[in-house]
Design brief:
This protein has 231 residues and is α/β, with parallel strands linked by helices. It contains 8 helices and 9 strands.
């Protein structure tokens, strides 16, 4: 199994965006030492909880601090920019770090999608496809099947190549992992109920659980939480 990282540069409760960026660089260095295959940087805007808004800037920093891991975007929101400028940015990055740069395009050569539409788009243009399970926990199997069945070989890719991007919690024990997972659960619930902000601390998540306020979540938020836990 090939393992990679997609980093959204989360801002911790009580922390700053600058600290989140530094933590991203530190995590990238660790992933490189541990032998991970790729390190992708996400793009998010107008978010109080995620600091990664310019992957093309972070890619250069990550690549310069690592030695072998591939580095790329997951993904550039192409609808916001000139396609020519994006291509030139990544051409320069590839010149600086030959053979190590990935251009991932969101919603539009690695296509990162969370629906069958993105899968079919990737298949049509003969690019690789990465299913964003962390955005939409339902429909991944169907999207991957549609991508493989509809794939058209292209000069850049002769056969379909798919991957999945999922939230993963790592800790020394299952109990510690569960505590950390509750932080993410609370962040996601706030996100889907219109309460944007930094990533909750373990203490905040525990206090929320102690107040038994989670059972009062809106049904849609609870359904998304359950899907991510079991999907």
């Amino acid at each position: 199994m090939i393992l990679s990282v997609l980093d959204q540069s989360p801002i911790r409760s009580g922390g700053t965006a600058a600290q989140a960026i530094q933590e991203t660089l530190q995590l990238a260095e660790l992933a490189d030492r541990l032998g991970y295959h790729r390190y992708w940087l996400a793009e998010h805007h107008s978010s109080g909880g995620l600091a990664g808004s310019a992957p093309e800037v972070l890619i250069g920093q990550v690549a310069s601090r690592t030695s072998r891991i591939r580095v790329g975007s997951g993904g550039v929101m192409l609808s916001h920019y000139s396609a020519l400028k994006v291509a030139e940015n990544f051409r320069v990055l590839e010149a600086l770090f030959p053979g190590r740069i990935d251009l991932g395009i969101g919603r539009a050569l690695w296509i990162l999608g969370s629906s069958g539409e993105g899968a079919l788009l990737a298949a049509h243009f003969g690019t690789a496809f990465s299913y964003a399970h962390f955005i939409n926990a339902e429909g991944g199997t169907e999207a991957a099947r549609a991508y493989r069945e509809s794939f058209r070989p292209s000069p850049r890719l002769a056969a379909p190549q798919a991957s999945v991007v999922a939230f993963v919690i790592c800790a020394d024990t299952e109990e510690q992992a569960e505590r950390l997972a509750r932080c993410r659960d609370l962040f996601i619930t706030r996100l889907y109920t219109g309460r944007f902000g930094p990533f909750p601390s373990v203490e905040e998540a525990a206090a929320c659980s102690a107040r038994r306020s989670w059972p009062s979540w809106p049904m849609r938020a609870r359904a998304r939480w359950q899907a991510r836990r079991t999907g």
